[in-house]
Amino acid sequence: MTRFGRLWLVFAALAIATLGSDFAYLKWRERSHQPLGVPIDLTRPGTYTFHLHGLAASPYIPQIQLQLPFKPDAYNWFPDDGYRQLWADSPPEIGIEVLDAEGRRVLSERGTLTRSDGWIVTGSVGSSVVGVYKLSKINGRPFDSYRVSLTVFRGSPKAATYRPWFQISEVPVTALLPSVLGFYALIAAIVLTAMILGLLHLLSSRRKGLA
């Protein structure tokens, strides 16, 4: 095997190993973006307990996703009328507690799912899916585990048709952008290296042909 042949084999092995490991990291990063998503019942009192792990070193917030039986105008969620449209006169009252592996309280919240208690409703115009979230941050630490407790103290009859989905999700949504751009930059670097190696191989072959 020629010197360039061995060089191409080494390059191919390094490229495959690098892309494979970076792709595995990208999949883990995608999973860590929203490490918890489970259905809950907001119509009646109850307690839900979850174990959370695999967080990235990034802030996370609690969020409840609702599938509404109608398509609201997203711009009307900020006035109080939007919350009354969601819950009528009986908004759910919930509590969220997050403890780390040592039992230290990382987050503790209790209140109704209304603007007066700091909850924000967001969605897209023409979409029946909305998110109700609160900017109460959990600072994730890789390799740590957490115990999440969600308690419904008072339910709302209107939530029966909303299919609530409780999430702990990373903020902001663009948190995955650096990882994705890094993966594409790595592909571009490997392609550029392959082009340079190919050019050097071609020049070397031409020199040998002229000799």
Can you describe this structure?
It is a single chain. The protein is elongated, with a radius of gyration of 25 Å. Helix 1 (3-33) packs antiparallel against helix 3 (177-210). The chain is of the alpha+beta class and 211 residues long. A hairpin with a 4-residue loop joins strand 4 and strand 5. The protein contains three helices and ten strands. The strands form two sheets. Strands 1, 3, 6, 7, 8 and 10 form a six-stranded antiparallel beta sheet that branches. Strands 2-9-4-5 form a four-stranded antiparallel beta sheet, with no helix packed on it. It has two domains: 1-33 and 174-211; 35-171, Jelly Rolls, CATH 2.60.120.
C-alpha-based Rg, rounded: 25 Å
The gross shape turns out to be elongated
Q: Separation of termini?
A: 20 Å
- Count helical runs: 3
**Which stretches are poorly predicted, pLDDT < 50 over at least 5 residues?**
none
CATH arch. level architecture of the largest domain: Sandwich
Order of helices and strands: HEEEHEEEEEEEH
Strand segment count? 10
How would you sum up this structure in a few lines?
The chain has 211 residues and is an alpha+beta fold.
Q: SSE layout and pairings?
A:
Elements: H1 3-33, E1 36-39, E2 46-53, E3 59-67, H2 80-87, E4 93-100, E5 105-112, E6 119-123, E7 129-134, E8 138-139, E9 145-154, E10 165-170, H3 177-210
Helix pairs in contact: 1-3
